[in-house]
């Protein structure tokens, strides 16, 4: 049964300069961000992260994921949208046989060298693995970067590989005010909705894994 749970609770909520993004957001910035290249990860803030660095925050997340899913050493885990693989690295440090996929060749080329062989180029809606290949599949802040139909396919792919032992975190909002802030900030999300809309999509995709929301305030 699906469960709403925050497995990223160990990470302090980021402070975002929404006003700055509002003033700089443009169709061109969105286009550049959606290339998921150097500008998105390590360029100026108006194009994305403003520097995607490993500051140690993923250690606690890895521990919470392992505990929540009762993973044992050697269990296989897939991180869909793993970016530079910071979480994959921390999971491997805990003894998990973790691998990552990402659409960004730039991110994969700039991953930690220790896990380079574990990082693969693929899209969330076309995962190149056999049914039930993993004891757990996670996808953090990735599925919303697809359009609605692609997001449904991606959720089905995660379900196919995990049998429901999975976790996704996606962009959402609870109030019209939060939605307005979100839309003034977002660059890459192609599909987003209130939680009720996401839960409807989960049903359509027969997704039974766990989930949580990324809320911009």
Compact overview of the structure:
This protein has 217 residues and is α/β, with parallel strands linked by helices. The protein is built from nine helices and six strands, in the order H-H-H-H-E-H-E-H-E-E-H-E-H-H-E.
- The level of helicity is 25-40%
Number of domains: 1
**Low-confidence spans: pLDDT under 50, at least 5 residues?**
none
Q: Tell me which oligomeric state these chains represent.
A: single chain
Average per-residue pLDDT, rounded, comes to 95
Please write the CATH class name. Answer: Alpha Beta
According to CATH, what is the topology? Rossmann fold
Basic shape: globular
Provide the spatial order of strands within the biggest beta sheet.
3-2-1-4-5-6
Q: Main β-sheet: number of strands, strand sense, barrel status?
A: 6 strands, parallel
Query: Per DSSP, what share of the residues sits in E-state strands of 2 or more residues?
Result: 5-15%
- For the CA atoms, what is the radius of gyration? 16 Å
Number of helices: 9
In angstroms, what separates the terminal alpha carbons? 29 Å
Decide which structural class fits the backbone. alpha/beta
Q: Give the H and E element order.
A: HHHHEHEHEEHEHHE
The count of strands amounts to: 6
* CATH architecture classification: 3-Layer(aba) Sandwich
